[in-house]
Amino acid sequence: QVQLVESGGGLVQAGGSLRLSCAASGRTFGIYAMGWFRQAPGKEREFVAAITWSGGGLYYSDSVKGRFTISRDNAKNTVYLQLNSLKPEDTAVYYCAARFSTGIITNRNEYQHWGQGTQVTVSS
Fold first, then answer.
1. Phi (first) and psi of residue 78, to 5 degrees
2. Which residues lie closer than 8 Å to 54 by C-beta, 6 or more apart?
3. pLDDT tens digits along 17-61
4. I need a surface site. Which of 14, 42, 54, 73 has the fewest CB within 10 A?
5. Dihedrals φ, ψ of 75, to 5°?
């Protein structure tokens, strides 16, 4: 089993920044990639960003490209999501996820393990 714990969410004004962290523990050997997803009230959970664990491949949704940056620290088994130039529409619960398989990196159904989520609220 893999345990994922997110932190770093909060309330910020539009234009502000936050840094989310996701610490992985347990059976982390063999993780192929880790991703961030978000879910706003009444909406489906959507892909935000992902990073492959070994090769550093980076993936972003069009809505966050240029504003958010995903990175990893393999020694700490931690993935980060830097959120800059935040907009009210970025308000959501942000979830960290891990996958052991290749495939469609943006497909949430291909991620096997999930964190509990952290709330990000952007005020206008």
1. -130, 140
2. none
3. 999 999 999 999 889 999 999 999 999 999 999 999 886 799 999
4. 42
5. -65, -30
CA distance 6 to 21: 5
Find out whether 97 and 114 touch, Cβ atoms under 8 Å: yes
User: How wide is the angle at C-alpha 26 spanned by C-alphas 22 and 31, nearest 5°?
Assistant: 70
Distance between start and end Cα atoms, the chain: 40
CB atoms within 10 A of CB 36: 26
- Return the DSSP state at 29: T
Of 17, 31, 26, 23, which is closest to residue 122 (Cα–Cα)? 17
State both tokens at 56: 């550093």
DSSP 56: -
Nearest to 15 by CA among 93, 90, 117, 119: 90
- Retrieve residue 90's tokens: 């970025």
